[in-house]
Amino acid sequence: MKKSIFVTLMVSLIVVIDQATKYLISTSMSASDSIEILPFLHIINIRNTGAAFGMFRDFSSSFFIIISFAAIIFVLNLIVRNVYSLTGLSMILGGAIGNLIDRLINGKVVDFID
């Protein structure tokens, strides 16, 4: 029971942070803006209709929604007893759910780390 409470809280926190940061980026930056954090790390405002790094952008949103659900189920099946693995997988799951929310509402994902 404790494990499921931890996962639920961690995933919920990540989804809230994910959606809040995407909202902040979307409302405060133009599409072409870039903010340098470090020489190799920038905050940008991009809409991604594809997968990671914009791959498969010609595929339909339905494809990515199905893949997102499959990834969520896969991660849920991987959840283990090790607290570090549990934390990492919960964070991945939270990010996947955040991206699924974006795809269901907007048909694309807000990406902002480059």
Mind sketching the topology for me?
Elements: H1 2-28, E1 34-38, E2 41-48, H2 61-78, H3 83-106, E3 109-113
Antiparallel strand pairs: 1-2, 2-3
Helix pairs in contact: 1-3, 2-3
The averaged pLDDT comes out at 81
DSSP strand tally: 3
Query: Largest beta sheet, briefly?
Result: 3 strands, antiparallel
Strand content: 15-25%
Question: In what order do the strands lie side by side in the largest sheet?
Answer: 1-2-3
Shape: globular
Rg, rounded, reads 15 Å
Helix content: 55-70%
How does the helix and strand content classify structurally?
A: alpha+beta
Catalogue the unreliable spans: none
Account of the 3D structure:
The chain contains three helices and three strands; from the N terminus they run H-E-E-H-H-E. A hairpin with a 2-residue loop joins strand 1 and strand 2. The N and C termini lie far apart (38 Å). Helix 1 packs across helix 3 and helix 2 runs antiparallel to helix 3. It has one domain. Strands 1-2-3 form a three-stranded antiparallel β-sheet.
Give a brief outline of the structure:
By secondary structure, this protein is an alpha+beta fold. The chain contains three helices and three strands. Helix 1 crosses helix 3 (83-106) and helix 2 packs antiparallel against helix 3 (83-106).
Which features characterize this protein?
114 residues; alpha+beta; globular; 3 strands; 3 helices; three-stranded antiparallel β-sheet
